[in-house]
């Protein structure tokens, strides 16, 4: 199922949604990682780490702009609930869902980046890169490319070195 690109009324609303979804994404990917082993689990754990880094990068912006967001517990619960609906998906189907859903998130993050104040733009540019890395990972993984984890390792390194 193709994800629809959402439009946000303003930067603050978009930032709040991005933060909430990245935070719930940590719990989502972590719950799915518990259902897999080996290389699949490694990939999912990389997605958990990437979401930890995106949340940490967004937290100062959320505070700076006074965004109203769900509680940490609420975001975690939301991610776990969504993962429970997909826990029985075979790996190939899960990767197909990533390929179908995440291009819309790339476009949404590009919109948020374009709306952002200039002094916040570097963080949003990294977030666009994170979504692009997830899409590239899924594309490579679906083709059986042994180097499919490289985009995730690369973007994690970019976040960790900033």
Topology record:
Layout: H1 11-33, H2 38-64, H3 72-84, H4 91-115, H5 121-142, H6 150-160
CA(first)-CA(last) distance: 35 Å
Strand content: under 5%
Name the shape in a single word. globular
The residue fraction in helices comes out at over 70%
- Main structural class: mainly alpha
In total, how many beta strands? 0
| Oligomerization | single chain
Verbal overview:
By secondary structure, the protein is an all-alpha fold. The protein has six helices and no strands. Helix 2 (38-64) runs antiparallel to helix 5.
Question: Care to give the gist of this entry?
Answer:
The protein has 162 residues and is mainly α. The protein is built from six helices and no strands. It is globular and about 40 Å long.
Give the tags.
162 residues; mainly alpha; 6 helices
């Amino acid at each position: 199922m193709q994800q629809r690109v959402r439009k946000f009324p303003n930067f603050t609303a978009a930032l709040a949604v991005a933060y909430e979804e990245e935070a719930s994404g940590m719990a989502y990917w972590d719950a799915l990682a518990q259902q897999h082993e080996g290389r699949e689990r490694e990939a999912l754990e990389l997605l958990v780490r990437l979401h930890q880094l995106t949340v940490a990068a967004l937290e100062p912006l959320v505070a700076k702009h006074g965004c109203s967001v769900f509680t940490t517990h609420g975001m975690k619960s939301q991610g776990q609930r969504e993962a429970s609906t997909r826990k029985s998906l075979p790996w190939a189907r899960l990767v197909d869902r990533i390929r179908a859903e995440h291009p819309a998130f790339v476009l949404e993050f590009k919109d948020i980046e374009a709306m952002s104040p200039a002094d916040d733009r570097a963080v949003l540019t990294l977030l666009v890169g994170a979504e692009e890395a997830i899409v590239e990972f899924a594309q490579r993984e679906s083709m059986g490319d042994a180097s499919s984890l490289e985009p995730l390792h690369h973007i994690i390194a970019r976040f960790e070195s900033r």
